[in-house]
Amino acid sequence: MNGGTVSDVKRELPFVSIVGMTILLLIIVWFVKGGSFRLYASLFFGLYFLTHSSWISIILVSVVQNILLLPMRILYERYHDDIKIFENEVKNSKISEQQLLISNKVRQGSGAVIFYVINFVLVIIAFFSAGRVFLLEFYKTPIDIKYLYPFIHFPEYPLGGVIFHFPLVDITKTMAVSWYWIFYVWGALFVVMALVKLLWRMVKPLLSKNEKLLGVRINYNRFLVLTGSVVGTIIIVSTIFLRNIPMGAQIVWWSADLAEQNTAFNIVTAVCTALATIYSGWQHNKIETQEARAKNISEDVIEKVNRIHMRGTVKNAIMLGLFAVWITRLMPSSHDLSVLAFEACYVLSPVTFDLLIPRKKKKEEAVEEVV
């Protein structure tokens, strides 16, 4: 007879957590055993079999990767609100508490957090593996057949389409504005901006409750964010431009051997990386601003946060650009082309891949931007 003895009941992991952790473990094992490298190598040579061009195949690898990751992006949109809450919790917690927070979410069976972790690992593996593939010189030296799936046709060597041609602007003649006028104009602009800012502080209280002038306030704050956060960069770039104003230019076609390092290609990659970083930061800032206005957060607070974010974005862009110049000089040009292809896919995503992702209707309508 059971005398009613109370026993400790072990808490079992929810089914979704077990499935999620199993999938994550399989992905990690697959990656460690070289599965991701084999996938990308096979993808490249499969595309090469169809195109017979190395540079076209490199670009298509980026396109195919975006298509393959579309299901993950659709799921990300599905869990967007829950992921946003989780990210805020992580951001507001101490570093020592973040691991415990994630662990607790997994034990609770949070599908959003489990997906978030799996998606993060997959994206890291994808970009690492793609970059690793194009670090190898297999354009003139035959690749080991063990890295290809059995159904992938082994190519004939040397590979075709190894020379990539890209246009650059060659400045043939320049003129320089005198330092006197440069300092004079910049001084005048600073005085005007200071007066405008002072005037705005005087009249802003009168406009705070005027709904009709809300657009003016929003556009003014946006202007301050775009200029105030990057004023140092604007001064440096504009000064260089004024001292080297192009008076004559021509389009020249440069050639890069994808199996070799190319300095011009390295510089192009660095500039595009910096621009893509700024674009990414601006897009993120735009979304955060819309969400903040939907929550009726003060415009002053939004302006301050945006300025901090944009300043950080520009700094990151400069650092990434400089790092790109340094690191790509140690790599073949095929890596530059793959990076540019990934960045192009990202920038064009809103008018291409994003159109295939169903969007959830927001519970709160964001405040419309005034153009």
TrEMBL record:
Keywords on record: Membrane, Transmembrane, Transmembrane helix
Bilayer-crossing regions: 13-32, 39-64, 113-135, 178-200, 220-243
Superkingdom: Bacteria
Name of protein: Uncharacterized protein
Organism: Candidatus Shapirobacteria bacterium CG_4_10_14_3_um_filter_35_13
